Amino acid sequence: MDAMNTHTQMSAGMKLRQAMNRGCVAAPGAFNALCARAIAQAGFEACYISGAATSVSAGVPDVGLLTLEHFARVIRESADASGLPVLADADTGFGEAEMMRRTVIEYVRAGGAGLHIEDQKFPKRCGHLDGKELISSDHMIEKIQWAVKARNEAEGHPASPGFVVCARTDARGVDGLQAAIDRAAAYVFAGADMIFPEGLSSPEEFAKFAQAMKGLRGANPSGGPYLLANMTEFGKTPIIPLSEFSAMGYSIVIFPVTLLRVAMGAVARALETLRETGSAQGLLGDMQTRQQLYDLVGYKPGTPWEWPAR
Fold first, then answer.
1. Catalytic residue among 77, 107, 172, 230
2. Is 62 a catalytic residue?
3. How far is CA 33 from CA 169, 238, 243, in A?
4. Which domains occur in the chain, in start order?
């Protein structure tokens, strides 16, 4: 069944909401469509498109250099290849109000399940680096309102029902945890379906943040907004298992750069071996075989290829 038919049965946004209503969803980061297909084959219910992974895959740092069209293409390819609901990074919305509106519309058209925007000043930087600067709460609220308005205006598109508007706050690393809680509450009041507190430094902070959100009126049937936790490596957040995030009340945990880091670690080691030995013989045991690759994309040589069944 192709992606278009899947969307007519249930939109990606509604799929993601239903999965989160059942429990905490693990969403590995896909850095291309083949990776997204592998995430689906492994049995995950959602995947994530990271601004960092998308940027470095294009050979540039994560400082907002890529275009909206670039991101929309990666979302479209990943959604089509995997059949999964795709939650995608939208950085600072690619601009002000008009661009925020266009971003939502383009992500909906690409088949995305939702997006998150952040309250950093442009040029943004990784949420786990120091030296971040924030836009005003009022400015971020305006962006959220434009995003929600655009989502609602797109309701005629088969992918639009349930499209998730997520607001990320980087305030913890700038003004402290209480400032992040205060901003998040304002963002929920402005219409955000989901909140993403970036750069929290301990399980205790995640628990305190989640508890503060529970009393708000939000999109989560369990109370408050849906909550997203970023389980990135080598950052300010310690490694916390999915089960612990679930117990604290988080709806989805993203692993934004995990697969890219693993893949590029393997690439670096393979290149070293190839340079030293002049042969790939010693690498065969680490490779996906030709048949495994064909199976992943649903290809049988000599047979006309159809969209992989999902």
1. 230
2. yes
3. 28, 29, 28
4. 13-259 (3.20.20.60)
User: Is 89 an active-site residue?
Assistant: yes
Read off the pLDDT of residues 161-171 as tens digits, 9 standing for 90 and up. Answer: 899 999 999 99
d(CA 274, CA 191) in angstroms, rounded, equals 53
Q: Is the pLDDT of residue 1 over 50?
A: no
Strand partners, 165: 115
- DSSP state letters, 219-287: S-TTSS-EEEEE--SSSSSPP--HHHHHHHT-SEEEE-SHHHHHHHHHHHHHHHHHHHHS-SGGGGGGS
Residues 54-102: tens digit of each pLDDT:
999 999 998 889 999 999 999 999 999 999 999 999 999 999 989 999 9
Rounded to whole angstroms, how far apart are CA atoms 81 and 170? 32
Please state whether the predicted TM-score (pTM) of the whole model is above 0.90.
Answer: yes
Exactly one of 102, 126, 142, 175 is catalytic; name it: 126
DSSP-derived letter for residue 120 is B
Select which of 89, 106, 119, 170 is catalytic.
89
Q: How far apart are CA 80 and CA 292, in angstroms?
A: 20
| Burial tier of 306 (Cβ tally within 10 Å: 0-12, 13-18, 19+) | exposed
Q: Which two tokens stand for residue 40?
A: 């689906």
For tokens 């301990």, name the residue.
Answer: 202
For the stretch 141-186, pLDDT in tens is 999 999 999 999 887 777 788 999 999 999 998 889 999 999 999 9
Secondary structure (H, E, C), 236-249: CCCCCCHHHHHHHC
Nearest by Cα to 113 from 38, 48, 26, 199: 48
How far is residue 178's CA from residue 281's CA, in Å, rounded to a whole number? 56
**Does pLDDT of 130 surpass 70?**
no
Q: What percent of the chain has pLDDT over 90?
A: 82
